[in-house]
Specification:
The complex is a heterodimer of chains A (319) and B (256). Chain A contains 11 helices and 14 strands. Chain A is an alpha/beta fold. Classes of the chains: A alpha/beta (319), B mainly alpha (256). The interface between A and B is medium-sized, with 30 and 26 residues.
């Protein structure tokens, strides 16, 4: 996992303009500006949660250092904890308390006065549509309600950086949209958001910039638009033949607009990156028939982060 | 060190304990009181045991209920929070050093142990009826031993709670708690084991022996007991060891 050998910094270059960067020194460097929504996109087990764990004092890196602002997370964890709010992947609400008590005690841990705690907890309960269940014990809450309360809790002490680890896993589409709205609104207040996800659309819609992570390494980084435009050709045509005769790859390479042709995983699979999609199918089938191969399956993917991930790893995000 | 955060966490534990007061008291008091009734009332009233036994039993019952309640208050929630619900994460992310959260758990456990111990005295007294002769002449010694026993149970709870797995709770009771109670000199004074010298010295590894003997010495000095100085020394040493083990294990379990 990324805990080994990874060094992360998260340091504002200029306090007034709140410019910050995240650098991972493991042959990899990536930069996050404060005030942006930054996404870590990758399949399960890629190292996203470990990265978050290191930056939030919860996972000690075996080597390297982590900074939040100018604070070394592992030298001054208490000061770092004051700056961050964390929404964990699995709800970890205090099951002995009610929703309102969870928020108020959280505020008390962060040294808020009684009046401020009462005001902020009421505001957040309302914003997250939990007011009518505020005095119920959270044991009886649904998964979505627990997730909403976890996010409210992380915002309770008004942190500068909000970490959300897979926040929309298990949420219904409506709650997901509510979550996105709340994250955007919090971001508009000048806060930095670091979000991990394995949903392409979430990364695409929500993030200003993102890093694609796999096997504990950053494989691509930039804004969603930049990343998508970096895919050769943009379109990915995945073809499946009964067999791949010699010379077929070269034939495809000759077709107009084709930028890259590779054999894909599984017998008879070919991935073609090209500037267009459907127009190429006819010529491809013709070329294959001329060499005696039969097309079994075809799938055209428009330029997306999914095709980007495939391009870099040869695997789908959901594999 | 941030006292406001520490105090807020203590308040949280107090809040939860108050909410569960009745079940908690029943859990901690019912068993000692049943024991008190059978040994201190039934057996003594029927003449099968001398009535002096009542006074020997009471400090032992107090020691047991303090030990059990402290361990229960710290270890049980900790085992669940560290391994299953991860509820403790919220407090681990609060602006305070991780070790102080463990200290807070110990303080909350000590308070619960002290409350249980002090509630048992009048309750057991009432259950046993007349003939209990204990004295509060040595109040400072009694208070010091109470504090050391409370720390013993809470620090023991921390060490067990951050070491034992969820599936091993039953085993913990069978292998640790049950023998500790039987060989803890709670139901008899240490001097009663004189008939078996090997056993008498073997039980000295059991911290409950010092708790029972210490409280017995403070409340009824005329019964032969291990000297107060030895008790205080042993309790302090065991407390310190459990504290070190507990804090280290807690740190190891909480930071991945």
């Amino acid at each position: 996992m990324a805990a080994r050998g990874g060094a992360f910094t998260f340091s504002p270059r200029d306090k007034g303009r709140k410019k910050a960067e995240v650098v991972a020194l493991d042959g990899i460097a990536l930069e996050i500006r404060a005030g942006e929504i930054f996404g870590l996109l990758g399949p399960n087990g890629a190292g996203k949660s470990t990265t978050i764990g290191i930056l939030t004092t919860r996972t000690r890196p075996t080597a390297g250092r982590a900074f939040i602002g100018e604070l070394d997370v592992w030298r001054e964890p208490v000061a770092a904890k004051l700056l961050i709010g964390v929404v964990p992947q699995r709800p970890n609400l205090d099951l002995a308390l009610t929703a309102r008590e969870i928020l108020r005690f959280h505020g008390a841990y962060f040294r808020q006065g009684a009046r401020e705690r009462a005001r902020r907890s009421d505001e957040l309960l309302c914003k997250f549509k939990l007011t009518d269940r505020a005095d119920h014990n959270v044991r009886g809450f649904s998964g979505g309600m627990m997730q909403r309360l976890s996010i409210a809790r992380a915002m309770m002490h008004d942190p500068q950086v909000l970490f959300l680890d897979e926040p929309s896993a298990g949420l219904d589409p409506q709650t997901r949209l509510l979550l996105w709205d709340i994250v955007r609104e919090y971001n508009r207040q000048g806060k930095t958001i670091v979000i991990t996800t394995h949903y392409m659309d979430e990364a695409d819609e929500l993030c200003d910039r993102l890093a694609i992570i796999d096997h504990g390494r950053i494989i691509a980084e930039g804004s969603p638009r930049e990343l998508k435009s970096s895919i050769p050709g943009g379109y990915l045509i995945r073809l499946k033949f009964d067999r791949v005769p010699e010379g077929l790859l070269a034939d495809f390479q000759q077709l107009p607009g084709v930028t890259e042709v590779r054999t894909a995983a599984g017998a008879g699979g070919i991935d073609v990156y090209a500037g267009s999609g459907g127009l190429l199918i006819g010529p491809m089938v013709g070329a294959a028939q001329a060499r005696g191969a039969e097309l079994h399956d075809v799938h055209i993917a428009e330029p997306s982060l999914e095709t980007l991930f495939l391009h870099h790893t040869g695997r789908s995000l959901r594999d | 060190m941030n006292w406001r955060t520490f105090y807020a966490m203590l308040q949280r534990d107090g809040h939860v304990a108050r909410r569960n007061l009745l079940p908690m008291l029943l859990q901690n008091l019912l068993q000692p009181l049943l024991l008190t009734f059978v040994f201190g009332r039934v057996l003594t009233s029927s003449g099968m045991m001398k009535s002096e036994y009542k006074s020997i039993l009471l400090p032992g019952i107090m020691a047991i209920s303090m030990m059990v309640s402290g361990i229960q208050a710290v270890a049980m929630p900790l085992i669940a929070e560290l391994q299953f619900t991860r509820e403790i994460e919220d407090r681990l992310l609060a602006p305070m050093e991780t070790q102080w959260l463990a200290v807070e758990k110990i303080v909350a456990g000590m308070i619960q142990a002290l409350v249980s111990g002090l509630v048992v005295i009048p309750a057991a007294w009432l259950t046993m009826g007349s003939g209990v002769r204990i004295s509060f002449d040595h109040l400072p010694v009694f208070a010091a031993i109470c504090l050391l026993v409370a720390l013993l149970s809470a620090a023991g709870g921390l060490a067990l709670g951050s070491t034992v797995g969820q599936t091993q709770i039953g085993l913990m009771y069978t292998l640790v708690v049950a023998p500790m109670m039987m060989f803890g000199c709670a139901y008899y004074p240490w001097s009663a084991l004189r008939f078996a010298p090997v056993l008498q010295y073997a039980v000295l590894i059991n911290p409950l022996v010092y708790a029972s003997e210490g409280l017995r010495g403070a409340l009824m000095p005329e019964v032969p007991h291990i000297s107060g100085l030895a008790v205080v020394g042993a309790l302090a040493a065991i407390d310190a060891a459990l504290l070190v083990i507990g804090l280290r294990q807690f740190q190891r379990k909480t930071v991945g």
